[in-house]
Amino acid sequence: MKIVIVGGHHISALVLAKYLKERHHQIYWLGTRYPRWPEKTEGREYRQVKSEKIPFFDLKTGKFYQNFWRWWRIPWGFFQAIWYLAKLKPDLIFSFGGYLAVPVVVGGWLLNIPSVTHEQTRTAGLANRFLQYFVKNVYLTWPESKKFFKVKKTIVVGLPLRAALIKQKKVQIFPNQLPIILIVGGRQGSHTLNLVIKKILPALLARYNVIHQTGEVLAGRDYQDLKNFREKLPSPLKERYFLGDFFDDKKMAEILASADLVISRSGAHIVYELALLGKPTIFIPLPFSFAKEQLENAKLFTQNKAGIIIEQRQLDGEILLRRIEEMFKKINDYHRHAKKLKKLINLKAVLTITELIENLIDEKRNKTKP
Fold first, then answer.
1. pLDDT tens-digit map of 251-267
2. Positions of E strands within the chain
3. pTM of this prediction?
4. pLDDT of residue 253
5. What mean pLDDT value characterizes the chain?
């Protein structure tokens, strides 16, 4: 079976793609090779997909909320998507939402290629709200999202999880027994968060071990800046600061399993993974996400007494340091509540999704038999 995968949430999409490939399906990936176009820097999505030997087709489409002068990419992306689909002739399109999915799913609808889409958040992305009229089914991570879609089309399936994360146990990362704080600002990183952490880093390292994924943000060249800052720290503090711009799946699984407290943006994937692992978290939601989806994701933890939210407009070093200290005073209670979140997680989401789409493809083929 030929399956095209497209969408903006590539981590869970890649988990599904790898599993489908193991089941001998032909997988094709439509994405963007240079996410910071016109800069010719290959994105993490492209590199990871290519490393799995999955054919990658560069889709040069645009967004309505981009610079006006780049709107020409929207119709270009639509015709490009149709050309790719006509060439590949897939049995199914699997969308993970986002602006990239729109021309592909609509193009598939025009070519009579069935599609399904997956919603990762506790709300609903703008693309998926639109695409529900062109797809067979809308797969949901959370039941709270049902109200945004045609109920007859929705199926709650959970979110595909990286296998390394499900099996991972705590490991010894530092040569001491101090508590471990993980700071992660999403795939691209958070320049705002990185700047605040830099200001309070000496105070943090006096009491905690810190693991910091800066992300690949270009503003300020954060990783190199913090690497230089680390070199100037006294030796005892330097040894307590583990820094990286990006951690691969294996390393990130070890880090997440071993952290005592997490400070993070609240994208769909990290929230789901932290719920699986039962990690107390301070969330700093991205303030301009559509329908405040990051804020709604973070509320899963606050509603279950497993974490707190600091909105970005209130964020500064003094406030963050105070909230960290307050949480560690009650860290056992936070851990107890956070561990209860695991019951909300579907560990077999990949299997569930695979069965559903294989049935869809079989139904289509049976209908077309003479």
1. 999 999 999 999 999 99
2. 2-6, 26-31, 56-58, 92-95, 115-119, 137-140, 154-156, 180-184, 209-213, 241-244, 261-264, 281-283, 307-309
3. 0.92
4. 94
5. 92
Fold of 2-160+346-368: Rossmann fold (3.40.50)
Report pLDDT digits (tens) over 176-230.
Answer: 999 999 999 877 789 999 999 999 999 999 999 999 999 876 655 899 999 999 9
3-state secondary structure 272-327: HHHHHHCCCEEECCCCCCHHHHHHHHHHHHHHCCCEEECCHHHCCHHHHHHHHHHH
Average pLDDT of the residues in 54-59: 95
Nearest to 58 by CA among 20, 18, 15, 28: 28
Identical topology for domains 2-160+346-368 and 165-344: yes
Neighbour-count burial for 33-66, b at 16+ CB within 10 Å, e otherwise? bebeeeeeeebebbebbeeeebebbebebbbeee
Cβ within 8 Å of residue 185, ≥6 positions away: 193, 194, 213, 214, 215, 217, 264, 265
In angstroms, the CA 334 to CA 261 distance is 9
Domain 165-344 has CATH 3.40.50.2000: yes
pLDDT surpassing 70 at residue 341: yes
Give the span between the Cα atoms of 226 and 232, in whole angstroms. 10
Give me the residue spans of the domains in the chain.
Answer: 2-160+346-368, 165-344
Q: Is the peptide bond before 202 cis (omega within 30 degrees of 0)?
A: no
